[in-house]
Amino acid sequence: MNQTPNQNPAADQPAAQPRYSLGIDLGTTHCALSWVDTEASDGEKVVQGVLPIPQLTGPGSVEDKPLLPSFLYLPHESELAPGDLGLPWAAGQAYAVGEFARTRGAATPIRLVASAKSWLCHPGVDRRGTILPAEAPAEVERVSPLEASVRYLSHLKAAWNQAHPEAPFEQQQVTVTIPASFDPVARELTAEAAQAAGFQPLTLLEEPQAALYSWIQQSAGGWRQSVRRGDLILVVDVGGGTTDLSLIAVLERDGELELHRVAVGEHILLGGDNMDLALAYGVTAKLAQQGSRLDAWQTRALAHACRGAKEALLNDATLESVPVVVPSRGSKLIGGSIRTEVTRAELSKLLLEGFFPPAQASDQPVSRARAGLTQLGLPYAQDAAVTRHLAAFLSRQLGATESLEGFGVPQPAAATFLHPTAVLFNGGVLKSGLIAERLLETLNGWLVADGAPPARLLPGADLDLAVARGAAYYGYVRRGRGVRIRGGTAQSYYVGVESSMPAIPGFEPPLQALCLAPFGMEEGTEAPLPEQQFGLVVGEPVRFRFFGSSVRRQDPVGALLDFWSPDELQELQEIEVSLPAEGRAAGEVVAVRLQARVTETGTIELEALPVGGHERWKVELDVRAEALAQVPA
Amino acid sequence: MSTHSPNLLSRLSLALASFFSILSRPGFAADVERLRREGWPAPAAPVAAAPVVAPVAPVSPVAPVAPVAAPPAPVPQPQLAPETAALQLLGLLQREARFIDFVQEDVQAYGDAEIGAAARVVHEGCRKVLREHFTFEPVRAEAEGSRLTLQPGFDAAAVRVTGHVVGQPPFTGTLGHRGWRATETHLPKLGQGHDASVLAQAEVEL
């Protein structure tokens, strides 16, 4: 993983560029794979497609679907007939991935792994530990969030290899997307999962950027007419499980338009699934009032029916209500079905007012006791209001474009939040015209109140597949055949340093933060070596507190912060260094300096360099959670 | 093959089985197409009579599906018994639409509202099965009710002429129904040894 050049085909065939650029959307609820045939593409004329993914849809039945639901089902050994889990490329597989896993698992949740991606970025758990399904009884053999991701990615790889035996997956250029808000550990784990699934070489790309790439590609060159220097594009991506925000500025340098990702939002675990669930709960409560009690099976059937009703109501503003029927579980369909309806008023109350309420630009997400939406273990967003999360993001990023060279449009002095001039929507939830309209209306209300012109909506593409398509296109433009979004890392990173001052009883020694990686480090670059030294004891692992900031753009490497507001620096998981005892006496103290770099893949690595030596020791970003709890505060 | 004439019931079951085989097996479809185009090797006469017979066969509108648009890469597939595709389709209709439950139930005892509520489940599910597993197009592009002329040698399997059928084509008449043609089918591939006759599993909650 050393400084590898951009395109690094297998060493034994140095001349051959991979024919396909593959883009993989590894989503919380769905995965997709798109490809660009680079040999058939020329400049902005791109030959692109989406791979139909064969997957189990029932016992022993395999079908092609454009999306692979990100679910893993671990069946009981006697649950299925022999061969019922067989795939064209794996006859004897003992688990199911995809559509069948989802439907089967809905009825037996103790054997279903869902939302593995959210677990992968959950700092409170051991992400390499076998912890999923979280509610499984002891006899179910659990898997780690990492392993679940490996299985989805392996499935995609096998599906590709089956469809394209002439162009083996291992020899193509692969881009995997991640939420922009993923922390360094989640990025590293995603890369690790991809490598374990045999993806080599590999690049990570932020999902909102992928959505914008897809928009650029669909415009076939027309994007240069749609945006101009000084535009600030807000990408709002509300997927099945997460909401991801990014700001991308349009600059001009040497007469060419450039795109620069200037800010990303916090990780918000809030998505379409929460909304479907909320609607189903609302309708269940209504049925209970009418005297119909639903069992667990019927509740699931209702959730399914509600999703259909939601889509109908959201897509057709003239409908006032949509009938919903909960079929009976037994074979008597007519006698046992329960009929109700979802009205527009209910939809507005539960979805629009619940998740997209009118908000002020100065609003902050509220923390309060949660009800209904939580699932054991995952840190779901406490405030379900996407609008308030958006307001907080824009206020926090007010200074994001201040020192951006070539942007040329300073924010007005009186601005209370950063003013986007254009909006790009992505994710299944925003396919709904009503929700997209509400979000745009709210944003434009803030802009008008601040004396700014309203933002315009960039016409979106296929919101389900844009991320995969954009990722495949990104692999193509990385070869220099189109515009690239610059930006580098979306945070600056700091290590905690306890200042050496006399201990005062009752007070913690004051903590300083040493900047290791500045904001916006590009892939394949190395930060300079800071002067600050740390004493490490040979043979003993040493932990440091680790911080990230999405707003401190000016700190150079080596900057030592004495004070910061809680808003500015977020504490991340601790990091750990251990110096092996080779050639040294255990217990010896060695002075080291810490250096950061961003790999070609897009992950962040920290290394400890002994002063005056040539060795480099990897600093572990992913410190085991249970061990973490034992660290004295 | 032409030594004895099967009775109506066997012909019907043969027609249905052929229908599904044509849909699910491009190779079989190509053979049928060749058969229809070139006729049986020995006696030519029965083939000439075919156009007269074809219109009464209930499956005629979709019969000439044979040249499935672009045959997908021929994946070696285990040969399925002809009725497997029919069972598969029934299984899909039951899974998505509760089709068998609905049709097997006695509707006499229920009011229209109850039947209507259940019909929504069936209708929505059937639509989903059709949408996901078949691609249709009308046999004739003209609007229903418009006048059209059938040239000599028209495809008698795809167009059924009724009423005053005399003389020689060209025939001019009114389009009563546009017909449907399946242009693509995507039935799930079945695992080896999978018992397709289980259309819906019994469910036992533990």
Can you describe this structure in just a few lines?
By secondary structure, chain A is α+β, with helices and mostly antiparallel strands. In chain A, strands 1, 2, 3, 6, 10 and 11 form a 6-stranded mixed beta sheet that branches. The model of chain A is unreliable at 1-15, 369-376 and 626-633 (pLDDT under 50).
List the helices and strands and how they pair.
The complex is a heterodimer of chains A (633) and B (206).
Chain A: E1 20-26, E2 30-37, E3 48-50, E4 53-58, E5 61-65, E6 68-69, E7 71-73, E8 96-97, H1 99-107, E9 112-114, H2 116-120, H3 145-163, E10 173-178, H4 184-196, E11 202-206, H5 207-219, H6 223-226, E12 232-238, E13 243-253, E14 256-264, H7 272-289, H8 296-315, E15 321-326, H9 333-336, E16 338-343, H10 344-355, H11 386-396, E17 422-426, H12 433-449, E18 456-457, H13 466-477, E19 485-486, E20 492-498, E21 511-517, E22 525-526, E23 534-537, E24 542-549, E25 560-561, E26 570-577, E27 589-598, E28 604-610, E29 617-619, H14 625-630
Chain B: H1 8-24, H2 26-38, H3 45-53, H4 82-97, H5 99-104, H6 112-133, E1 134-137, E2 147-150, E3 171-174, E4 181-185, E5 189-190
Helix pairs in contact in B: 1-2, 1-4, 4-6
